[in-house]
Specification:
The protein is an alpha/beta fold and 428 residues long. The protein is built from 13 helices and twelve strands. The N and C termini lie far apart (51 Å).
Amino acid sequence: MKKRLGDFETYGVEKNISQAITPDYFEGMLPRAQLIKIILLSSFLAGLCFLQSCSVIFPLIAPFADLPEPTGSYTVATRTATWTDSSRDETFTPEADYRRIVVQVWYPIMGKAQGPPALYIDDPELRLPALAKQLRLPVTLFKHFDQVRTNSYTDTSNTEFSSDFPVILFSHGLSGMRFQNTSLMEELASQGYVVLAADHSYEANITIFENGETAQYRAGKRRVLTGDHLENIDLSQIAIIVDDLRFMLDKISRDNSDPLLRGITYDLAKIGLIGHSLGGAAVINTMAVDSRTQAAMVLDGWFAPVPDSIIAQGVHQPQFHLGQASWSDLENYARMDRLLAHSTGPIFKLLIPGTQHTDFTDMPLFTPFSLYIGYTGIADPGWLNKLIRHSTLQFFDTYLKGSDPAVLEALILAERTVNSYSFIPPGP
């Protein structure tokens, strides 16, 4: 029987996770005055197009830069494929269809790759209008975004190694994208990690399957089927995201002959997770219910969707929380602190003053225009990006590769301009 919209498996997700924020999740993360500024600016820029050629003036107003180069010794290669989970019904659609996700992998290769590095944006004719709608900006403002290049190559040669690499899975937040943290994925791959990320279909800004079909963003506008929560975002779809991650774990565990994985060597005994925003809640949830995962990095995590049962019991694997200094919803970090108080594994926390939610993605790296209009807040995005990359790398080096925890703790405590915390329980 086809499930109705709103019927879910929840891993103990309680009804109180529906939060009273605006129906559009991305707008809910922004102050009202900032939204008004963006809407007015969008109208002004649209009018400007009547006076000047948009293709000429907008690259001057909002120039885009390529991503910073990774620092590791390996060249980074990448592939993308559509995976279908035939064990799950797609609850976001009325049709009798299976759950599909688009998965991208970044992995190390030896030597130099052939050809130019891959573009940051795939299928720009579909993805850019969806992004413009989300950001409330004219698509012509960043049409030249399709020229931005990564440091990853589609070259698939030289992938055989004598040792296996640890695996890391990334989960984006509501209206996010699988490649929104490509600079971090490339850094990890260049240092000897295999990194996979999925567009969580209908929860991503847009998902473009390899057959050309698309899944538009719906999750932030989805409702529970009770009148009390009619105006609230239904967050119980976190179970769908957790199941996406567990499906990916199952897939890499049993099917390394899949074209996406062919020739890539990885160690299934060393698996880490990274999540941004709702993806942060998803990786904590996944780590609590799946013993295959050893450590989690949470980037500006949104803890409202983490079930009360997990908050109360905590998690026992290492976790690192890196985010903005405070949220407008004070309960968010209060829930995080309750989770940490009940957790027994190593805990690290860095809270960065002067940052906003999207500063913990690639967005501030591309153009200072994002700072001007208020979508990002960090004045020095290069510094923050290095901090994200270096702390994430050292965290996984510690708990997936066996590096000395004291090095990670020293890195955290050396950041005097941030609010930091570390706890490493004594050994037996």
